[in-house]
Structure formats: structure tokens, C-alpha cells
Write a structure and sequence with these properties.
This protein has 399 residues and is of the alpha+beta class. It has a six-stranded antiparallel beta sheet with strand order 1-2-3-4-5-6, with no helix packed on it. Helix 1 runs parallel beside helix 6, helix 11 runs parallel beside helix 13 and helix 12 runs antiparallel to helix 13. 57% of the residues lie in helices and 16% in strands. The protein contains 14 helices and six strands. A hairpin with a 5-residue loop joins strand 5 and strand 6. The protein has two domains: 255 residues, no CATH class; 99 residues, no CATH class.
């Protein structure tokens, strides 16, 4: 590899790592916050929570990596063009492969990385994640959610816990049971605890009363010192692990169990998942070609309405949206399975045509105006927020 090629590859790779790290951190944080209830509601340890959080990463890598590629390539080429480095490379008689080769090496490496993660790492991470969550929910305490909140155990059965104490002790227990037609039972106890002996689970309530209402409208109140409410009938269903097509390994998707109820009911879900796994890994290559078509030639971008990076990202977002749209439709229509597989290939061929024709890939003027207006609004809003946080005047007047 030539010195110039190593230089371009190094710059693009460093930007790729930075963009991927920041994007992964943002997406991962939003996903983790959605699962914080694993600790707050079920009393699981922090170690279990962080294990569940780490198992989310493989599922978001195939989505994040292509955009990290397009950002890294577009920004690298745009800066090199602004600094006249691409002009010098062309003036020195270097071929177009001098720029294309390092960029495509990065894109192919990123694509292989996505292929391995999505087909070999992510399925096992998803299965492990489901097992951890199922084991957590197998504990009846996970059904109690938060203090002061009613929880529906099954039709006609509700539980509320007013307080929690150390050692899994409970306070202000309320149970409403109307499963038996015409009979309403309401239990209230000052204290209690969950008794777990193997497969036998019970909610032991102490110092409470039972209100019983029969079909005739008669109400009786019984005070008790202790009362055990059997929970064994509910816990097996709670801890059961159900695997969806996205949780299955690729070999299983290629040869699913004929007795699989999901496969029998919706075989398109398996075809859609297979098409997804064997097409999404192409997006890093497609997005790299888009960035090359937008900013790969030595030219002045002063006449461009928007920055090449914004153009490349906008086109990449449009292509990815088509893929997501086809994936959603493919669950009910087999035709869209082929659309999913064809989308990255067709967009890549279009980008290759622009590169071979030495024409800049740009958004239509009307679309460019919309994107430019959107970015201006975001910039103005962020400036106003920073000014408000800093305590300065929002307008030209006195604070």
C-alpha cells in the first residue's frame, strides 16, 4: 500500500472509530434506560443489569457501523478537498484507485465485521439476554413493579405492594381476587414476605383482613394473623423463555423446526430475518460508495447548497429508510423480502455509476432546501438553548 493510501486509510479509520464510539454510546444509553426496571423492579444485582446492558451492543452494531462509515469517509474526503490534498493527488498523476482503495478496504472490513456480529454474535447475545430477563421475572417480586403501583398477575387478580423493607420483607400488601365468578375477595395485610421453597411459592401475609363479597351482595370480613396466598400456578409461565426469529441462530433460520409454532403461523418472519442478516452487512460498502460519489473527486464545493457530509448522510438515511420500510412490509408480503435484499445493491450500483461518470451525487434542489432549512432550525434552536443555559439574554435586550 502506498504512503498516500495509508494516509487516507488512517484518517478515515480514526474518524470511523470516533463516530462509531459516540453513536454506539448514544444508542446504547437509550436502550439501557429502557431496561433500568430490571434493577428497580426486580431487585436484581447491578452485575446482572450490566450484563443485560452489554448484551444489547451486538444488536445495534449493524445499524450504527454503516453510518459511522459514511460519516468518516465523507468527512475525510471533504476535509482533504478543502485542504487541496485531493487536487495535489490528482496533479501528481495518481489514479482514482489511490483514493478508492483505502476507502473500500475500510468499508469491506466494516461489512465483514457486521456480518460476523449479526450472524454469529447477536443471536447468542439475544438468547442469553432473554434467559437473564426470564430468570429475573421468575421471581414473583418482579411482578410487584414499583411501590404503590397495581400489577395485574392474570385476569381478575391484582397485587399492590405499599412498601419494601430489607430482606425481601413487604408492607401494606393489597390483593384483589375476582377470578371466581360472582365472588370478590380483597386481602389487606400490614406485613408479609414471599416464601420460596423449590417450585412452591407463596405470598405469606401477616396481620390483615379479608373482605368477601358473594353474588347476593352479602359482605363478610375476616381478620387473620397469617395467611398464605399460593403463587405456584403463576411462576412457571413467568420464567418461560420464548424465542422469536431474530433470537434464533442463522443455521436454525436456514432449517427451522417444522413444529415451531411461530414458523407454522408466520413463515415470512423467518424469510425476513434471513434476508435482513444477509443484506444489512452490505450497507457499509453501499454507504462508502455514496460518500465517494458525493465527495470523492477534487472539486470546489462552494457552489454546493449544503455540505457534502450532510448530503452523504441524507442519501444514506434515505437508502436505510427504504430498507427498514421493506423489512416491515416483508412480514406480510414476500415480495418485499426481495426489496430488502436488493436495496443496498441497487443503491451501490447507482453510486458506482456516479463515480465512473465523474459526476457528484447530490440531492434534488427542493430536497436540499428542505434539509438545509431543517439544519438551520436545529442550529438556531441549539444556539437558543445554549444561550438560555448560560443565563444570557435570549434577545438583544437587557437580561
Amino acid at each position: 500500500m502506498k504512503v498516500v493510501e495509508r494516509y487516507i486509510l488512517r484518517r478515515a479509520f480514526m474518524l470511523f472509530i470516533g463516530a462509531m464510539a459516540w453513536t454506539l454510546a448514544i444508542v446504547w444509553t437509550t436502550q439501557v434506560l429502557a431496561r433500568i426496571d430490571l434493577v428497580t423492579d426486580s431487585g436484581q444485582s447491578a452485575l446482572t443489569f450490566f450484563e443485560v446492558a452489554s448484551l444489547i451492543i451486538p444488536s445495534i452494531i449493524p445499524i450504527v457501523v454503516p453510518f459511522a462509515v459514511v460519516v468518516a469517509v465523507a468527512q475525510t474526503l471533504s476535509v482533504m478537498n478543502s485542504d487541496s490534498e485531493l487536487v495535489v493527488i490528482n496533479a501528481a498523476g495518481a489514479s482514482r484507485m489511490t483514493v478508492l482503495k483505502p476507502i473500500m478496504l475500510l468499508a469491506v472490513a466494516a461489512a465483514i465485521f457486521c456480518l460476523v456480529v449479526q450472524n454469529f454474535v447477536d443471536p447468542y447475545a439475544r438468547q442469553r439476554n432473554r434467559n437473564l430477563i426470564a430468570n429475573a421475572r421468575a421471581d414473583f417480586l418482579t411482578l410487584l413493579i414499583q411501590e404503590g403501583t397495581f400489577r395485574k398477575i392474570e385476569d381478575g387478580l391484582f397485587v399492590q405492594i405499599g412498601k419494601r423493607f430489607p430482606g425481601n420483607k413487604l408492607g401494606e400488601i393489597f390483593v384483589a381476587d375476582s377470578r371466581q365468578e360472582g365472588v370478590d375477595l380483597v386481602y389487606y395485610a400490614k406485613t408479609g414476605a414471599v416464601i420460596d421453597e423449590g417450585d412452591d411459592k407463596a405470598l405469606l401475609m401477616s396481620d390483615g383482613v379479608v373482605h368477601r363479597k358473594v353474588p347476593g351482595g352479602e359482605i363478610s370480613i375476616i381478620r387473620f394473623t397469617s395467611y398464605a396466598f399460593d403463587l405456584s400456578a403463576f411462576t412457571p409461565q413467568i420464567g418461560k423463555v420464548s424465542l422469536m426469529p431474530k433470537d434464533q441462530t442463522t443455521p436454525y433460520l436456514l432449517n427451522p423446526d417444522p413444529n415451531d409454532r411461530i414458523f407454522q403461523k408466520s413463515p415470512n418472519l423467518y424469510r425476513t430475518e434471513l434476508a435482513k442478516r444477509f443484506s444489512e452487512w452490505l450497507y457499509p460498502i453501499t454507504f462508502a460508495l455514496i460518500a465517494l460519489a458525493v465527495a470523492g473527486d477534487a472539486r470546489s464545493h462552494r457552489e454546493s447548497r449544503i455540505h457534502p457530509l450532510i448530503t452523504a448522510v441524507s442519501i444514506a438515511l434515505l437508502a436505510r429508510w427504504v430498507g427498514f420500510f421493506a423489512e416491515d412490509k416483508a412480514k406480510g408480503d414476500r415480495f418485499y423480502v426481495y426489496v430488502m435484499a436488493a436495496t443496498p445493491i441497487v443503491v451501490a450500483l447507482i453510486a458506482v455509476w456516479f463515480i465512473r461518470a465523474q459526476r457528484a451525487m447530490e440531492l434534488p434542489t427542493r430536497w436540499a432546501d428542505v434539509v438545509l432549512s431543517l439544519f438551520r432550525r436545529i442550529r438556531d434552536l441549539s444556539s437558543a438553548v445554549r444561550l438560555r443555559i448560560a443565563g444570557g439574554p435570549s434577545h438583544g435586550g437587557n437580561p
